[in-house]
TrEMBL record:
This is Methyltransferase domain-containing protein. It comes from the Bacteria. It comes from Veillonella magna. Gene3D superfamilies: Vaccinia Virus protein VP39. Keywords: Methyltransferase, Transferase.
Length: 254
């Protein structure tokens, strides 16, 4: 039995994109789409996705108009999936998958990218629901990469005045903002993500800019659901009114 038997082909419901996923590895979730639509893209600029997984973010970024995207993945199983997903969607001319550790200073050229996008591990070791399997554990918990290492890598790779976009647990927002200031990725935009109106925010997306002046815009909150089980108009607009529930692997949300 080959490893590919475990894979599942899913429709992203955006721009006719499809990807292979493995239920035994970490599957992308709505967090991926929220982060991608928070980022600003331009056809002449170069972007990098740190910890790309299945390459869902680079595929969505190019669909939104990003010029070229480098997708970095340390997990060889996921790196193979990413390469095949890029080829299946015929984006090889715009997306390059690099297998390796983005913390390695010899892997990638410094200050080579206009924008860095990253969905870092949400939980410190010992907190959050324990993930089964090494791949899921790496994606959810700081077992391999800590927040400081993510921010240091982002600072090193992005150009002066370039942008960095992150999604993180709202309960760790203070830690994220302090870390961004420490690595001179000045927070410029912030948006809280709520499941429903009246519920506490669970996630936050933040845009930082290398070497920028102080001053941050707090955008109106994003409400994922209109009512329980019914997505908000904004979220549904990303999918052209299609039902996103068909995309994700079961029980893999962070």
């Amino acid at each position: 039995m080959t490893e590919h038997v475990k894979e599942r082909l899913v429709d992203l419901l955006i721009d006719d994109l499809k990807i292979w996923q493995r239920p035994d590895e970490f599957c992308f979730s709505l967090d991926t789409v929220i982060l991608t639509y928070f980022a600003t893209v331009h056809s002449k600029r170069k972007y990098i996705d740190l910890g790309t997984g299945t390459a869902a973010i680079p595929l969505l970024l190019t669909s939104r108009g990003a010029g070229t995207v480098t997708a970095v993945e340390i997990n060889p199983v996921m790196a193979d999936l990413a390469r095949r997903n890029v080829k299946m969607n015929e984006r090889e001319h715009r997306i390059t998958v690099v297998e390796g550790d983005y913390r390695d200073r010899t892997l990638l050229a410094a200050e080579a990218f206009d924008g860095v996008i990253v969905n870092p591990p949400y939980f410190s070791v010992g907190s959050g629901r324990v993930a089964t399997g090494l791949g899921r554990a790496m994606a959810r918990h700081e077992t391999v990469t800590a927040l400081d290492e993510v921010l240091e890598s982002a600072y090193r790779l992005v150009k002066f005045h370039g942008h960095v976009w992150l999604i993180y647990r709202a309960e760790r927002l203070a830690e994220l903002l302090v870390g961004m200031e420490r690595y001179r990725l000045i927070p410029k935009r912030l948006r809280m993500i709520h499941s429903l109106v009246g519920r506490p925010a669970k996630l936050v997306v933040v845009e930082g800019r290398k070497g920028a002046a102080a001053g941050m815009e707090v955008e109106p909150p994003l409400y994922v659901y209109e009512t329980s089980g019914v997505y908000s108009e904004e979220v549904m607009s990303w999918y052209g009114g299609k039902d996103w529930h068909t995309v994700s692997c079961a029980n893999t949300h962070r």
